[in-house]
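Notes to self, CUB domain-containing protein:
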Amino acid sequence: AAELINSPFGGRYCGPIPPRRRISLYRAITLAFYTDKNYTHPGLFSGRYAFLNDSEYQIGTPAPNTPCSFTVLGKTKRTGTIVSPTYPGAYPKDLSCSYLFIGEPGQRVRLEFRDFDLFFGGPHCPFDVVKVFDGQTNDTAVIGTYCGQQRNLVLYSSESTLFVTFDTLQRTANTPNRGFKGIFEFSESFVKLDFIAKNDGEHIRGSECDQKILSKKESSGFVFSPNYPFPYMPKIVCRYFVYGMQDSQHLERVRLDFMKFNIPKPKDKSDCSDGYLKIYLKGQEATDSYDKFDHELCGEESQPHQVVSDGPRLVMVFSSGELQGGGFKAKYTFETEYRIPGTAAPDGSCSFTYRSSSRKKGEFNSPR
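result:
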């Protein structure tokens, strides 16, 4: 009786459209049928029921006095499934759930949502929402706020803990959304983020090893492959977003000088089908533009030289295949971009050369 009292109201239905599948939040569910007719025929509605094993919904150690909050310890459960409390049935209103993942020292947490279907109330998710925090509580940095339908949503913690909340609003309208289902994993083998800390890079929260590097006005530094100076691990993808200054007073470009490069190419292959480093000189950031690279580097014959971006942004994508290599080390330099046509001086100074052997006429202008 107490479980029925605490169970959320599942909705009121009439007309020709049947309710979506329902799964009880507790061990009981009640259906009530009301009619103002003196006589009804037996074909008004019908359905099927089944009793499910609730072990799938026991994500970890349950928190007291809540139906859907759990703590998961990496030392006792390295992998498992995370599901919303009534998945794949329509989830109830006025629900507050939390999932705390605590790994061992040196571990990181990987969360992959295989199915994600929440009510979409707008880009800031003001209604039903899943929030992921990069730590043990909701006071730590937010990795992301998610609602609606999400595809290929994979998230990593920066350290050994991750905190997930799932909240639905108390409102009149019913939602047919089914919630979420995913998998989690604790592992020491995810990329260590030390190689980002070696320079002025900043880890992009939620990614395994992506980083961004922001200019401090004509600053310079180094970028490394993961695990450098030791061989990198196989089957990882890391992205580097190098951003120069761009405003009314400043415009920069990025120069990249490689000091070490060792990404082996398979002996029987002529292309970079295993590991590679792709460079985008126009700073492509959208996922669908990653096939429009300017340089693809691997092996000995593609030993990179100096590359310069076309604007203030440069992007690199490093993908390791089956073969291990020593990786790479490169120096980045943010240079002032003068926007002057002509042959620029190699030292980056405001000097430009015009030769009649290349063009008989042209234009020149003051620095922007």
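- The chain has a mean pLDDT of 88.
- The two ends are 76 Å apart (CA to CA).
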